[in-house]
Design brief:
- The complex is a heterodimer of chains A (363) and B (202).
- With 363 residues, chain A is mostly helical.
- Chain A has helices spanning 2-23, 51-79, 83-100, 108-116, 122-151, 165-188, 240-245, 249-263, 268-279, 283-322, 327-356; one strand at residues 42-44.
- Chain A is built from eleven helices and one strand; from the N terminus they run H-E-H-H-H-H-H-H-H-H-H-H.
- In chain A, helix 3 (83-100) packs parallel to helix 10.
- Chain B has 202 residues and is an alpha+beta fold.
- Chain B is flat.
- In chain B, strands 1, 2, 5, 6, 7, 9 and 10 form a seven-stranded mixed beta sheet that branches.
- The longest helix of chain B is centred in the N-terminal third of the chain and has 25 residues, at 2-26.
- The chains are: A mainly alpha (363), B alpha+beta (202).
- At the A-B interface, strand 1, helix 2, helix 4, helix 9 and helix 10 of A face helix 1, strand 1, helix 2, strand 9 and strand 10 of B.
- Strand 1 (42-44) of chain A pairs parallel with strand 11 of chain B, so a sheet runs across the interface.
């Protein structure tokens, strides 16, 4: 009961913020002009927009208003208005982050591709989004420090403008993609089981020193919802949760690197909020506002990452149910491993090439 | 038992929602806007003999962007830009936009028209940076022969939206049988909302 009511309160709070921001909406219209300019008659077309267009319009419109509201509340904080302004500002920054992350960027595509190409449990998805949010905040703080101390408040500057950061981020992503491809290839050639490619290490014992004999007892607590039927073929049971439960050091490092690469370039909007806070002597409120925004961004990435994890698990489970031999599952895993790895590699490489401004084929 | 079944149903729905969300958003066209800086726009059309001779624009930036511009370029903190300060701001902030034709797209008939920058005046309006500038076409654009459509749009970090007040002014007189219309763009402006079209009866 207590859980339900706190969830309801949270939902009402979030909905309230959205409504509050849109309550101030006024539609554009013909207005009187001043300074002798003629007043034109203006007609506003009623466009028949699709669902997707309306959704993207909503997201952008919401962010525009939320940005203005965060500024208003920061001014209220500066004037010493009550704590309500501060907490409302935090709430708005949080929801702003949620919606802001729906746009391109923030590593969503990388995270999703990564989890399509890797078995993982939901906890891994949540952990990675938390890591991205934390890296986002730290990166924003570092860049503001750089801007304040070294670069003296360059307008609109972000960590992406510091030489090497963006390139490094892309190269890390590409390198992880290549490593995923290497593992997927090994699995396809039979050196390791496709699901073990998901562990991020080989069980052969050759590559890694730790003892992980393949009899892992399955005694670790994976949830009962995971189908785990042994089929008789080599390791062809649905292994998603098990694989994810066996979080090896290597795969933790790998997903940590992905989170770092995705989060190290902070969003310029967050950087500007932080710069504004520093300029107006509101360092701690600014830090918390950027933190709230980053948590919102992390939540969206989390939802999408978990969606990708569930999509992979569901596909595997469905395939497992349709074919008792498990061969289709193995094939599907190979496909997803290669697909995810290829996309991660391409994102890194294409972004790096674009960064270097090398003409792409056909350009 | 009932609780467990309900929980399972909710769990399945949550899973479907998250998978759907991941597919819809994660793999959506990358063209989806992702702005970080927010700008409101006002237009002023200048007319002479059934043609548009100049297009004036006024951009009002969001508080956060403006704050950094003031910190960096209003060096004496007097709330206004001196000639030197304005020049520095123009060079650092505005001139790089030339690469993107100042994000302004002017379409006469079906063709994008090249525009030339005439003037740039930055100013401070409350907490906001305002940049007023004027563009002129190579030749006056006859709006009676072909529809004239204007838009300000960036695929990247800047979001341009019409100001809620006084977003459209005119200078000089124009054919009263023509009308301004705010609509979604078509042709070269496809995918851009809030275009300002000047349409005349055939």
């Amino acid at each position: 009961m207590a859980k339900c009511s706190s969830k309801t309160m949270l939902t009402l709070f979030l909905v309230g913020i959205v409504v509050l921001i849109f309550a101030q909406a006024t539609w554009v219209g013909a207005q009187n002009s001043d300074q002798g300019a003629v007043v034109p008659l203006i007609e506003i077309a009623e466009e028949d927009r699709g669902l997707w267009q309306r959704w993207t319009d909503f997201i952008v419109d919401f962010q525009r208003r939320a940005n203005a509201e965060v500024a208003t509340h920061m001014n209220a904080i500066q004037r010493g208005d009550d704590l309500g302004a501060f907490f409302l500002g935090l709430g708005i920054a949080f929801v702003y982050g949620i919606f802001h992350a729906f746009g391109p960027g923030h590593g969503k595509f990388i995270v999703m591709s990564y989890f399509i190409g890797r078995d993982a449990n939901i906890g891994r998805g949540v952990l990675m989004s938390v890591q991205i949010a934390v890296v986002h905040v730290i990166a924003a703080v570092i860049i503001v420090w750089l801007a304040d101390v070294i670069l003296r408040g360059s307008t609109g500057m972000s960590l992406a403008d510091v030489p090497g950061v963006r390139a490094g981020s892309f190269l890390i992503i590409a390198a992880i993609g290549v490593y995923m491809l290497y593992q997927a290839t090994r699995a396809a050639l039979g050196y390791i089981d496709p699901s073990e490619a998901l562990h991020g290490h080989s069980h052969s014992g050759a590559g890694h020193g730790h003892a992980h004999s393949h009899a892992h007892s399955h005694s670790h607590g994976h949830s009962g919802s995971t189908s785990h039927q042994t089929t008789g073929s080599t390791h062809a049971h649905s292994h998603a949760t098990q694989a994810a439960d066996g979080l090896s050091h290597a795969s933790k490092t790998e997903s940590g690197l992905i989170a770092f690469a995705a989060g190290v370039v902070p969003c310029p909007g967050a950087v500007l909020i932080m710069l504004y806070a520093v300029a107006n002597n509101m360092i701690y409120p600014g830090f918390l506002l950027v933190g709230a925004m980053s948590v919102g961004i992390g939540l969206t990435i989390c939802a999408l990452g978990v969606g990708a994890i569930l999509a992979r698990q569901t596909a595997t489970r469905l395939m497992n149910g349709s074919d008792g031999s498990g061969r289709r599952v193995v094939l599907l895993r190979h496909l997803m491993n290669f697909g995810g790895a290829t996309i991660v590699t391409l994102i890194g490489l294409v972004s790096f090439i674009a960064f270097l401004d090398i003409p792409m084929p056909g350009q | 038992m009932v609780f467990s079944r309900t929980r399972d149903k909710l769990c399945v729905r949550a899973q479907i929602f998250l998978i759907g969300l991941a597919i819809a958003v994660g793999f959506a066209p990358a063209a989806m806007a992702h702005p970080d800086y927010w700008v409101t726009v006002k237009y002023q059309f200048s007319f002479s003999e059934n043609a548009v001779t100049e297009l004036g624009l006024e951009w009002k930036f969001d508080v956060f962007y403006s704050s950094q511009a003031f910190n960096r370029y209003d060096l004496d903190r007097d709330g206004a830009f001196s000639n030197e300060e304005a020049d520095a701001l123009r060079v650092a902030i505005f001139e790089p936009f030339a690469e993107d034709d100042y994000f302004v797209k002017v379409v006469s008939g079906e063709a994008l028209q090249p525009m030339t920058l005439r003037s740039v005046v930055p100013s401070k309006e409350g907490d906001h940076l305002v940049i007023a500038f004027a563009l002129s076409p190579e030749n006056p654009l006859n709006y009676r022969e072909m529809p004239l459509v204007v838009a300000t749009h960036d695929e990247g970090a800047y979001d341009f939206t019409l100001s809620e007040t006084d977003f459209l002014k005119v200078q000089g007189t124009y054919d009263p049988s023509c009308r301004f219309r705010i609509e979604d763009g078509t042709g070269p402006l496809n995918g851009i909302s809030q275009t300002v079209a000047l349409l005349c009866a055939e």
